Amino acid sequence: MRASRHEGLELKVPQPVPEDWRNRLLAHLMRLSPESRRNRFFVWMSDEALARHAARTDPAAVVEARVDGMTRGMAEVHLLHGPRAAAEISVSVEDGWQRRGIGAALVHRAIREARRRGAEEITLFLLPGNAAMRKIAFRAGFVRAPYGDGTLFEARLLLPSVAVRRARFHWPAGLDLGRARA
Length: 182
What we know:
Aminopeptidase, seven-stranded mixed beta sheet
């Protein structure tokens, strides 16, 4: 995987999360075009709605893509409560910085952060028309999962240790896979 086609890219996962991260998230989201806002949130988002999101979101990790010290993309990693350890990631990259590898770098780092926090499965939702994010997701190993009425596209990634554990099958004694029986 190429990290980015931009030389000055650095990915940050601040630990502990600094107090001003919400301000940086909001400033980043406000720089997104209406189309990029829709790709990130699946609906058009006003400035006020973005401010509410920045104030209320509570991710387990935030991955910040900075170019020459300026935030140009962010990923949020949200741990999900349920029968299995899972996470959902969401990614946004400012319009002038798209198609430079920043989104792919954010997705890969978000996967790593979700794994570090115990996630066994990662979900990524996107609009069917968001071809760039669909390409990034599939290259990262996500597969399409059935979801709703087709207005959203759900991609899932089983992390390798879980995929291997689920793939194990104990064959019954005496089963011969070499011969088919009629």
